[in-house]
Design brief:
10 helices; alpha+beta; Nonspecific Lipid-transfer Protein, Chain A; about 220 residues; Arc Repressor Mutant, subunit A; two-stranded antiparallel ribbon
């Protein structure tokens, strides 16, 4: 944090902003919530950030104890960035911030959304009441990346990587999933036009995509 401006305020919230308040810092953390990433993967998830700024933010977050570097074992051998145990505690804060932001009357629909951002939005918007009585595993192939969701009677675990056993597999790009989950496109219409594909338990796949209602927009009153 050497050279960074500080609020010089004894409030712990002010210190948190000293650590995370620089532009892109929280979004770098967001990109690491689902697991370690290489520098190039972080760039892909944050297309608006320059390499120099990303390097600077990673260095600052590492110095603050939020992020650490690790080298994957052979045969991969690549260097990755990951959240520390303390850094992972930011997940609930980022999800709560996302839910708060989703209620903004000034939020602009249609802006680009990364794959991890889409998946994390499902963690954010998950409605346990809608998931009551639903059990099964859905594997998700989104723009070439793989995730899986395990549903178990009002609980959900949503992780990066393939499932050991999947009851249903959904495939599509980010825009297709956004259209069905958040923009009102009918599930069967997405299958019909080919923007989504499903194999296995089709009712489970359809039910899964209906578990993430957006919160009601805030009012100024």
């Amino acid at each position: 944090m050497v050279g960074k401006r500080s609020y010089e305020d004894g409030c712990a919230a002010a210190h948190a902003l000293d650590v995370l308040g620089e532009r892109w810092a929280l979004l770098v953390v967001r990109e690491l919530l689902l697991g370690p990433k290489r520098f190039t993967d972080l760039r892909a998830g944050l297309p608006g950030i320059s390499p120099n700024v990303l390097t600077q933010r990673l260095g600052e977050l590492e110095a603050a104890g939020v992020v650490q570097r690790r080298r994957l074992p052979p045969p991969a051998g690549a260097g990755v960035y990951e959240l520390t145990a303390w850094g992972r505690e930011l997940e609930s804060i980022i999800l709560a911030l996302g839910r708060w932001g989703a209620r903004s009357p000034q939020r602009k629909p249609g802006l680009p959304l990364g794959v991890d951002s889409l998946v994390l939005s499902w963690r954010t918007m998950f409605d346990a009441e809608r998931a009551a009585g639903v059990s099964g595993t859905v594997e998700l192939h989104i723009a070439g990346q793989v995730y899986h969701a395990r549903l178990d009677n009002a609980e959900m675990r949503l992780l990066r990587g393939a499932a050991q056993e999947a009851d249903a597999v959904l495939t599509g790009d980010v825009a297709a999933f956004v259209a069905v989950v958040y923009e009102g496109l009918r599930f069967n219409d997405a299958l019909r036009d080919g923007s989504l594909a499903v194999s296995g338990d089709k009712p489970l796949a359809k039910r899964f995509l209906g578990l993430f209602p957006l919160p009601q927009a805030a009012t100024s009153a």
